[in-house]
Amino acid sequence: MKKKEVNSSRIPIYRDAGFELYDALSTAEAFSKETEHSREPDKYIYSRYRNPTVVSAEEEIMKLEKCAWALLTQSGMSAIDTALSIFQLGKETRPWLFFTEIYGGTISYIESVLKSRRGLDIQYFTPENGNYNLVEFEKVISVLKPVFVYIETISNPMLIVADVEGITGIAKKYGTKVIIDNTFATPWLYKPLNEGADIVIHSATKYFSGHGNLTAGVICGNDNKIMQSAIEYRKFVGHTLSADDAYRLQTQIQSFDLRFSRQCSNATRLAAFLNDQPVINHVWFPGLKIHPSNQFAEKLFGSKGYGAMITFDFDGKDKTEKKNRRDKFIESVSEKIKLIPTLGDPHTILMPVEAVWGTKYPEPGMIRLSVGFEEYSELERTIVKALDIVKEN
Ligand code: PLP
Q: What is the predicted pLDDT for the residue at 1?
């Protein structure tokens, strides 16, 4: 066995900005491999290009998504920017097609950056009655022939499950690439690259890091040409994750399966419980038969789980009563369930939907829960207490 300098079993945090290259020949050789996902220990150049601690965290994600490469970035948004921008080819750029049920921050980026600043031809595809109609989708795509279609496996906050296999099959017929934000589903439930998707994105801020203490993003794939463009773009704009954050991510991701499987089972139990409460009007959770995309959730995930997000609203005689009940609920659980605008944390956290999405979702008083991996009985107890207070008011 090769003897190491220090008997540590972990890759250290390499904080080097530039790496030592020794002579002109090795420098030229290192630069010639700049756009490879190389693991050669003496070919690092500069941390904005590639960094050994970051590569080691990328390898953990490659094992999870079972893909040929993964590139870490400083946030989910910089992963999205990288994945999309590599398809921009000046005036030659054909339309880009986005499903409308995607993260609000992505929509804002599309509108402000891609449309307003870059002047790109952006098109949207909207669901009907809570699902995507693939017959309509084929009609749109056959006329538009977009460069790519962009979807989320499980959408935010209505938790629509996209029929990734069906969508990918249609897109391929028209030479359209498929880019999937798999943040809510995670590879534990589903691996879109196995179904022919070209790029998978994650906000690693969420379930991969899992502790609400770092921001990171990742793009994953199998196509070498896409990887080379993405490595180049990430380098040009400086989106690469820092070694410090990569170290923490690499450590925290070791418990991803354990955390997420427990979060999914807690969410499945809690959704069924909430669905039985008279004070609650409706529960949106892909594992419930009443959810419009339950059939796709079953198709994609089997019975493994349905993600760990639940959206629900309150019963009430009018909008005001429903919103008052929401506010009372938020107040009553606040010791245990905090209002924190993220998801995938260890503890259950919540967001009032209207405060973030405005009137996009007209049901008043909706709450989105990110279910944690705390003891289930403790979580249910907190919610039972809060619902009792809501009923009394
Ligand atoms: N994708 C989804 C589905 C998200 O929910 C988010 C953030 O909430 C992002 C991407 C952006 O990730 P980040 O906040 O790490 O930039």
A: 62
